[in-house]
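=== RUN LOG ===
request id: a7f3
mode: sequence -> structure
chains: 1
length: 72
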Amino acid sequence: MAKDRMTRAAELAEEARERAEEAYEAAHAAVEDGMDTAHRYMKRQWRERPLAVTASAVGVGLILGLLLGSRR
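=== RESULT ===
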């Protein structure tokens, strides 16, 4: 009886591991797709509006620098 429980627990653990692995692979593929899309968008924006992209990057850097460098 105890052996049956251990076998069942091992089966459930294996099933959970397989599901987690599938979920990880699906999430990884989704992140890769999103990163590719974002990269293409940024490249297109850089070609079309280089000054606006540069100004935005400098602005974000300035804001982050001020936030991280503030002494509260």
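=== NOTES ===
The first helix runs from residue 2 to 48.
The helical segments are 2-48, 50-69.
=== END ===
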